[in-house]
């Protein structure tokens, strides 16, 4: 059987290394907690969290973030060029561009969830705003923790109940919408199964 997906699982489905790692993480958690899935169990899903975060780094949901300057300030680039930002001006940034800066993220166009692993943490190496898929500062998205929790809960159900295989080509990104999506459809083949800690 096949299902059509909006594209949220495409990176994981294209990478057997990480798909196997998140399935293994589910087995370990099932051995520890049984079939129980609650907030505490979801919070232990570090591998799945890093996979989701990396997908959002590569394809953040918003094209642009806008802020109004509340006072005059200056910005100095890495190259030493200085820009004066007057009070009242609109400042814009593109998460899709910022999340792929090569001086922050090694091989920025490569899907590599391990870049967020303890000891590497590329998103923290250059400061608090190196990763801005959900914005940042006082206006960072308050829904970010809930979004990750929700996505982990959905993936947990899928991983524990289905074998999944991407059967369509990797989709193109549609930058024409306010919330970024994919052009066309993503086809996923699935087979019903019940994952157990002993498999």
Automatic annotation (TrEMBL):
SUPFAM superfamilies found in the cross-reference section: Cytochrome P450
PROSITE patterns: CYTOCHROME_P450
Binding-site residues for heme, renumbered to this chain: 141
Cofactor(s) the protein needs: heme
GO function term, MF aspect, one: heme binding
Keywords associated with the record: Heme, Iron, Metal-binding, Monooxygenase, Oxidoreductase
Pfam family, one: p450
Gene3D superfamilies noted in UniProt: Cytochrome P450
UniProt family annotation: Belongs to the cytochrome P450 family.
The name this protein goes by in its record: Cytochrome P450
